[in-house]
């Protein structure tokens, strides 16, 4: 990594409810074919596609005393919708990662959240991402560019060519945890402390960063009683 290396994070706007249904089903079959499947647990791929179509397309909901049939995307919270969205993004990202100007960059994706490095100008990166926003009418990116950016719950910083990582705190979610005087089972509080400290150990790239996070955890727990 160079001192001038930029980071970029972006996510897909409303991915689960904007999946193109027929196209996503075709990508599912292509994905299974590419990975050597002709049957899955004895079920032929054409049958899997038909079953997937039922799960994806037969969704109705009520709004203002009227029934609606969902024609784009899948049911929110459905494990199948999440899996299908992940596979659809596998297909979509090919247009990005196979570009010659991406060669040598780091690219990582967690479902619809993407992180990548960039060693050219910010203008070129913005141009690329704006182009990517035109590749598919249903797939739109919201992106951020900088040398210190959060990705999921990690804050990544380019510190003069050295990667520094720390815990990212969402401003709307912290410093609030379950108050100690609530009626939750005692093991809940033990798990909270254990999770906070484990996250601090895993994400802190230096001992100083870990110590800062440890003190922040202590203050947060005191604040919440």
From TrEMBL:
<dbReference type="InterPro" id="IPR000477">
    <property type="entry name" value="RT_dom"/>
</dbReference>
<protein>
    <recommendedName>
        <fullName>Reverse transcriptase domain-containing protein</fullName>
    </recommendedName>
</protein>
<feature type="domain" description="Reverse transcriptase">
    <location>
        <begin position="1"/>
        <end position="194"/>
    </location>
</feature>
<dbReference type="Pfam" id="PF26215">
    <property type="entry name" value="HTH_animal"/>
</dbReference>
<dbReference type="InterPro" id="IPR058912">
    <property type="entry name" value="HTH_animal"/>
</dbReference>
<dbReference type="InterPro" id="IPR035942">
    <property type="entry name" value="Lp2179-like_sf"/>
</dbReference>
């Amino acid at each position: 990594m160079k001192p001038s290396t930029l980071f970029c994070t972006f996510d897909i706007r409303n991915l689960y409810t904007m999946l193109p249904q027929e196209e996503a089903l075709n990508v599912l079959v292509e994905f299974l074919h590419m990975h050597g499947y002709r049957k899955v647990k004895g079920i032929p791929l054409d049958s899997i596609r038909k079953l997937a179509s039922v799960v994806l397309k037969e969704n109705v909901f009520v709004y203002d005393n009227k029934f609606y049939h969902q024609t784009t995307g899948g049911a929110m919270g459905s494990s199948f919708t999440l899996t299908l969205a992940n596979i659809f993004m596998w297909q979509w990202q090919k247009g990005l990662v196979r570009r010659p100007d991406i060669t040598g960059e780091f690219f990582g994706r967690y479902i619809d959240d993407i992180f990548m490095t960039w060693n050219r100008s910010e203008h070129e990166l913005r141009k690329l991402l704006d182009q990517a926003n035109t590749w598919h009418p249903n797939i739109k990116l919201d992106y951020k560019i900088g040398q210190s950016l959060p990705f999921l719950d990690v804050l990544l910083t380019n510190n003069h060519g050295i990667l520094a990582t720390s815990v990212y705190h969402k401003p709307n979610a912290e410093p609030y945890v379950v108050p100690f005087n609530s009626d939750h089972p005692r093991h809940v509080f033990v798990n909270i402390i254990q999770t906070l400290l484990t996250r601090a150990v895993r994400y802190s790239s230096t001992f100083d960063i870990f110590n800062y996070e440890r003190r922040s955890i202590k203050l947060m727990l005191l604040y919440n009683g």
